[in-house]
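User: Can you predict the 3D structure for this chain?
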Amino acid sequence: MAKVQFDGVRKVYDNGQVAVHGASFEIADGELMVLVGPSGCGKSTLLRMVAGLEEISAGTLRIGERVVNDVAPKDRDIAMVFQNYALYPHMTVADNLAFGLKLRGHDKAEVQRRVQGAAEALGLTSMLDKLPRAMSGGQRQRVALGRALVREPSVFLLDEPLSNLDAKLRHSVRTEIAQLHRKLGTTMIYVTHDQVEAMTLGQRIVVLNEGQIQQIDTPMALYERPANLFVAGFLGSPAMNVLRGGLQRGAAGLALLLPGGEEVPLGAAAIDPAWLGGELVVGVRPEHLQPGQGAPSFKARIEGIEPVGNEIFVNLRFGTQALVMRVPPQILPAVGDDISVEVLPAALHFFDAARGERIEAQRQAA
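Assistant: Here is the predicted structure, written as structure tokens:
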């Protein structure tokens, strides 16, 4: 096991495109760190620099205490699992697991020990004699994981390993990866564009956009205290509702005046009164919009109702603003009818309209 340290790591391609802008952070020994962001954000480039598959343009990368900028991939003590399984179709599971070890000259007894250990860890013991074509997608991905596992590396690198699986298999294999990490305690760096995977797998998450780190924190800290509008909108499903307007005093506390003239009551929201009269952005999670119960509320039109079992997503229209409300199962007005909507003031997020950065609550507004 080993920690991984990025110190001003930068990647610039020959055409001048900057893929990663000076990344500096540390992945602790034994930590499962997730790199997440949209396509082209630099997450896979960062992973490939750790693997030695991309040259580092500037900065320093350490695995353990060793600088590895110029170390060959085979000498970095890492193992990588790719999006594609890349299994040898003519080899059994056992042979696929053992192939790399045999190439590296391990003796027969050591190869057998490692293959058996990986098979037991991943539930593949009964499948060792099968060919890949006789296995499901989830089983083949487990073989790909096992092929990395037998290496017994200091660092595991996983590059969108579940993207070729259907939703049910993704959930199953995701659970297996989390259990495997808890069992092994090995440092893992996991790349994904799926924020659900990131939230459920990562002990900490690095959120990237356009080659720049937006925020690094635990999953719930990112969800509850996003540093900027990008993080706020990227994490969470459905996404955070975003309202842009002017802060003013309303009939029942603070209110946000939208560009179309609609007023959203914010009650006793925790925002410094110095922002009164200024433009800002208010973010509210779908679960923090609720049918009005007598508190300050506003009327919105129901445009769609999506029951998904244990909860309901209600698509709303308030003037020109589209909103999503998440509620427990209940009887609601029909599509096309109006509904009274209450904003929970204590759960609001405030952002600077010009820069998109979070505005921290300073004192309770009167």
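The CA atoms of residues 148 and 269 lie 50 Å apart. The longest strand covers residues 297-307.
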